[in-house]
């Protein structure tokens, strides 16, 4: 049997994140025989560190839980969904609806808006965010003036042609100013609209162009896959479940996965007969030789990975890797059915919901002026996701879980069975970072950068676009990306996914 060092590889993919998994699956199955290897220090895409956990009794057995450290929603208009359908791997996946969106409110939220934090004993509630014109008109808590202002905003938000002239003046200005000065929306309703952006920054720090694009994505996604909802989550483990399925399909197609063998050093020398020699017998001038953990050295025609997986291409900026977001996962003892109402007739029951805590509604997030405090986002998964036993739910949040339990008013009050707090690294590198193969100072042609993992709560389609670009570079093909023929029932071919 050949060892890693004795094998000439077409491509080595450093890491096993969503980008590497999709690319390995595509190359191993679409172009088989195609020899690729995924080399990874670890098998997750979470970037978590500095973890603290606490727990009490009444938990289920450990294998009853599947916790995603990098939770993301997938909007129904995302390019990821039709790509998975075209690749046929969707048959090994199950997607569940994300139902209602909520915003947390306390009685003295108006006072907190002018600079004073909410009092500890203030009563609170959660307000369902309207998802359609019908929801706006049915809301009896809104005045007629507020309803007109909201309707005018929704009309603008779903029409990009109407937005174009408005964004010329307001695009780079704070979303808070746009809502108040241009749209005449009352301050207590601005938090409802800002919640739809899932922005990590307060409204005063969020650009109008950014906010409108994300609200447009939210509103235009509703009804695409079914009435009443616009986003889904993968069952059993979030985005990691997609990577898992792609890894399995890639292995069937001939890919080799090597764990605990991260890339330590990248060297370049002339090719000595690797696949990829030109038709005239000449050699590509620079071929990567990789030094792995454990001392092995392997040769490859192509190398692809993210910045943190390729030590020679980690950015030199002192800020890179020094920015973190704090998250927490909690398992709670109640299914909290009030958060999962039926969203429409003849639609599946939702298995996920989103609760947003605007700046000023949580007293212990951080110090400083209320307008400078970031919002808190909570993604709640019911036990239908398969991530926790029946009768429990999983919440992925940064703070404020006790505030939510109090606002729901369920008796007896649910308890937190287990929690984990961790820090997740944010990448300061833009997704449009120049590829080394396009840089004059880099080794030409054989090292390809994939998208770094991001901490956004929504899957970013630019990740998929970078996978497409990398595939086109390696194969020279322009058509057929992630497209496979149906296999006949009962026929199992290693060259098919």
Can you describe this structure?
With 497 residues, the protein is of the alpha/beta class. Helices cover 25% and strands 22% of the residues. The chain has helices at residues 18-30, 80-87, 109-112, 133-138, 144-157, 160-170, 175-182, 187-195, 208-221, 239-252, 401-408, 461-475, and strands at 8-14, 36-40, 48-55, 74-75, 95-106, 124-128, 231-234, 256-259, 263-269, 287-292, 297-305, 323-332, 352-357, 376-382, 393-397, 416-426, 447-449. A hairpin with a 4-residue loop joins strand 10 (287-292) and strand 11. The radius of gyration is 25 Å and the shape is globular. The two termini are 25 Å apart. The relative contact order is 0.21.
Outline the secondary-structure elements.
Blueprint: E1 8-14, H1 18-30, E2 36-40, E3 48-55, E4 74-75, H2 80-87, E5 95-106, H3 109-112, E6 124-128, H4 133-138, H5 144-157, H6 160-170, H7 175-182, H8 187-195, H9 208-221, E7 231-234, H10 239-252, E8 256-259, E9 263-269, E10 287-292, E11 297-305, E12 323-332, E13 352-357, E14 376-382, E15 393-397, H11 401-408, E16 416-426, E17 447-449, H12 461-475
Parallel strand pairs: 1-2, 1-11, 2-8, 5-13, 11-17
Antiparallel strand pairs: 3-16, 4-7, 5-6, 5-7, 9-10, 10-11, 12-15, 12-16, 13-14, 14-15
Helix pairs in contact: 1-10, 1-12, 6-9
């Amino acid at each position: 049997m050949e060892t890693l060092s004795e094998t000439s590889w077409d491509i080595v993919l450093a890491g096993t994140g969503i980008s590497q998994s999709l690319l390995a699956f595509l190359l191993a199955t679409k172009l088989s025989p195609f020899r690729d290897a995924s080399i990874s220090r670890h098998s997750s895409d979470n970037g978590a560190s500095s973890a603290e956990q606490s727990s009490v009794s009444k938990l289920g057995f450990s294998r009853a839980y599947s916790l995603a450290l990098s939770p993301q929603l997938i909007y129904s208009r995302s390019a990821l969904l039709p790509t998975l359908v075209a690749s046929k791997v969707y048959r090994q996946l199950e997607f569940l609806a994300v139902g209602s969106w909520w915003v947390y409110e306390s009685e003295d939220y108006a006072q907190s808006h002018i600079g004073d934090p909410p009092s500890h004993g203030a009563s609170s509630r959660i307000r369902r965010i309207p998802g359609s014109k019908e929801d706006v008109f049915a809301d009896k808590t809104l005045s007629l003036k507020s309803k007109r202002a909201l309707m005018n905003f929704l009309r603008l938000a779903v029409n990009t042609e109407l937005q174009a002239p408005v964004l010329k003046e307001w695009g780079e200005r704070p979303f808070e100013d746009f809502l108040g000065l241009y749209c005449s929306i009352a301050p207590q309703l601005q938090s409802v609209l800002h919640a739809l952006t899932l922005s990590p920054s307060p409204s005063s720090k969020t650009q109008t162009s950014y906010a409108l694009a994300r609200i447009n994505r939210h509103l235009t996604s509703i009804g695409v896959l079914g009435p009443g909802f616009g986003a889904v989550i993968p069952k059993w483990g979030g985005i990691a479940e997609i990577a898992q399925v792609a890894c399995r399909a890639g292995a069937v197609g001939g890919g080799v996965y090597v764990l605990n063998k991260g890339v330590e050093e990248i060297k370049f020398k002339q090719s000595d007969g690797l696949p990829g020699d030109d038709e005239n017998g000449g050699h590509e001038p620079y071929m990567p030789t990789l030094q792995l953990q454990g001392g092995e050295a392997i040769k490859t025609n192509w190398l692809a990975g993210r910045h943190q997986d390729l030590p020679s291409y980690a950015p030199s900026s002192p800020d890179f890797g020094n920015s973190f977001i704090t998250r927490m996962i909690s398992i709670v003892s109640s299914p909290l059915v009030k958060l999962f109402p039926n969203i429409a007739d003849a639609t599946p029951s939702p298995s996920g919901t989103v609760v947003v805590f605007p700046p000023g509604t949580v007293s212990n997030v951080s110090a400083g002026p209320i307008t400078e405090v970031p919002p808190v986002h909570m993604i709640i998964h019911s036990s239908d996701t398969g991530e926790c036993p029946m009768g429990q739910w999983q919440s992925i949040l940064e703070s404020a879980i006790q505030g939510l339990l109090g606002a729901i008013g369920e008796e007896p009050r649910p308890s937190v069975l287990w929690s984990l707090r961790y820090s997740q690294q944010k990448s300061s590198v833009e997704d449009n970072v120049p590829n080394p193969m396009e840089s004059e100072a880099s080794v030409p042609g054989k090292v390809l950068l994939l998208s770094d993992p991001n901490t956004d709560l929504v899957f970013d389609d630019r990740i998929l676009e970078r996978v497409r670009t990398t595939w086109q570079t390696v194969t020279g093909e322009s058509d057929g990306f992630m497209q496979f023929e149906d296999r006949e029932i009962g026929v199992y071919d290693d060259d098919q996914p």
